[in-house]
Each structure stands twice: as structure tokens, then as C-alpha cells.
Amino acid sequence: MDDVAIKVLLLGDEKIGKTTFLSRISGGSNTLEGHAPIAQLRDVDQPFIFEIRNRRRTYRLEFYDTSYAEDWRLLEPDLVLICYDISQRLSLINMQSLWIKQVHATFRTSNNLPVIVVGLKRDLRSESDPNGIIYPQEGYKVSQEMRADKYVECSAVTGELLKLAFEEICKTAVKTMTTDGGQSEGGCIVV
């Protein structure tokens, strides 16, 4: 049976950890716990390809970042990950005021396009942040306001919650290929 290609688009501000996230998961399941060194991927190598298999078929997840050499707005993604840096409040604000609006303005299928909010750099959450700490509850609340389907947090550097976040992204990506689609029923789900 042929591979099923699924396009996953990562959106978010620069320097919020998208490349480190992709670099960590590119190492495979052995690196998801954060114990292995991270070999940084290069933007010119996009899309970043990950294959996952279940009992029925093989899925080819093609990850694209906003730094994609061609215009990411020309893609027709099956899943969008809107990312923010947990240690940078401005990236949370931009996620709500810029990136979700870009999704709705750019993609004709935005009403049926599943969106997962991904909080990156969980290891840098700080009680001493002068802009106020961003707790998971706040990230989840913003995700609900954006009408995202799921909310996950992780740290690519330490591996904290990375395996869980990646599994949830994969489950949603695979679900986009079903007749039900990848959107959650009844609102945002915290993972």
C-alpha cells in the first residue's frame, strides 16, 4: 500500500524553538526523551520528512516551517501547528493576534483545518519573568479563544513532554486522512 503524505505547517514567531523541536523529533523515538544531542536541521532541507506506521499503512508527515524557502502561504496543509515560546509573552500575543488570523486569511479550508497550539521551551518557564509567567492554563485559555483543536507543551532541549506532544500531533495528522478529519469535537483539548 502506498504512503499517505500529510502536510504539517508550523507557524509562529522567529526564534521560538520550532527548528529545535523539529531537529529533536527528527532523531526518532530514541531522542524524544531529551538524552541525545540535537543535530540542528537546516531550513533549506524542508520539508522535514517523518514516517510513521500503524497496522494499516505508512504515513509520510511532511513538516514545513515559516522559514520554508518557497512561500508557505502557497501550501495546502492538512494540519497547522501554531507555536509560541512559553518564556516569551510576545510570542503568545502574536499567536492570537497574528498567526491564527494568517491561517484564516490564507487557507480556504481554514474552517475544517485542524489547529494545534504548541507551547515550546517549557524548560524556560520562569517564575521571575518580568512580563509574568505563562502557566499552562493561560496557554490553554488562549488556545480555546482561538478555537484551536488541541493544546500541548513540551521542551525539545530536555525532552519534557516531547514524546506525548509528538504522539498527539501524529494522531491528529493521521486523523486528517479519515472522513471525520482531524478536528476535535467540542473544542480545545489539553494534552
Overall description:
- The protein has 191 residues and is of the alpha/beta class.
- It has four helices and seven strands, in the order E-H-E-E-E-H-E-H-E-H-E.
- The chain has helices at residues 18-26, 89-106, 136-145, 162-175; strands at 4-11, 48-53, 58-65, 79-85, 115-120, 150-153, 189-190.
- Strands 2-3-1-4-5-6-7 form a seven-stranded mixed β-sheet, sandwiched between helices.
- Strand 5, helix 3 and strand 6 form a beta-alpha-beta unit.
- It is globular and about 50 Å long.
- The termini are far apart.
- The model has no long low-confidence stretch (mean pLDDT 84).
The helix/strand series, from N terminus to C terminus, equals EHEEEHEHEHE
Strand order of the largest sheet: 2-3-1-4-5-6-7
Mean pLDDT: 84
Q: Which structural class should the secondary elements be placed in?
A: alpha/beta
Distance between the termini: 31 Å
Task: List the total number of helices.
Answer: 4
Q: Quick one: biggest sheet?
A: 7 strands, mixed
- Total beta strands: 7
Global outline: globular
How much helical structure, as a percent, in the residues? 25-40%
**Uncertain segments of ≥5 residues (pLDDT<50)?**
none
- Which value, in Å, is the CA radius of gyration? 16 Å
Q: Work out the strand percent.
A: 15-25%
